[in-house]
Amino acid sequence: MSRYAPRAFPSRTTIVTALKGAILLGAASAGMAQAQQSPALDRMSISAGAFYAEPKIHLGGDTNYGRIDTPDEKIDDVTLPRVKAELLIGDSHGLSFDYFRFDEDWAGTASGDTVYEGRPVSGTISADADLRLEMARFSYKWWLGKEKNAFGIGLGAAYLRAKISGSVDANLSASNPVENYSWSGSASGSDSVWAPTVELAWRHSLNEQWRLYAEASGIKKNGGTVEGHVWNGSVGVEWFPHKNVGLVLDYNVQKIDLHRNGDRTADLDLKLKGPSAFVKVRF
Description:
With about 280 residues, the protein is mainly beta. The protein is about 10% helix and about 70% strand.
């Protein structure tokens, strides 16, 4: 009777050696995959802080007494809350979120020349207004570069919401022919809109603790009740004294120009510029 030779099984030492090899190979592969990510980018981060801005505002609109436009006016500096978040998917695809809110009372008296019912007039206008403006921006970015420099091209959408209420007193006079106007009134209104946004970004890693960045974005809305555009630009530096927690400082300029259509049109032109500071947590 023929006998079959017993089947040889690998020894325990061989199995342990194979497992160690697989673990080392997996770790090496993971390290290679991780190395493809630019050191200028984070896998995920959340930044919370404030925008210390110097506002310059212009308001105009139709009233019961005709069209009135205020001169460009600088108002008191304000501190605006701001939140940012970013997520990197793979090595080149990113999602970002940015939110800030302007909510301030404004009161002032302007004297000089302006336009009333299409006529040049001179005099004084006293206004008291409460303006609240919120903007949330969501975007997708495609990141180019895997070394110390990374360049991002983004597309997304922005949500804008504006609410204003206030009162005005005016004493104006016109010439040719001479006419005097004296009146007061109050009104309020609010509107919101979604608009497409385009973004550009640059990030540079100096070392593990220091990084530089620059960002620019534009929002354009045509047609509908609310039209206008929003432009934003910033340059900044990031410092990470700890691996996962850092401080971000930048200088930011926001230009917001909105026009409301309807039976009574209204215009809002707001410029904000100044430094921002954030605490950034990254994972």
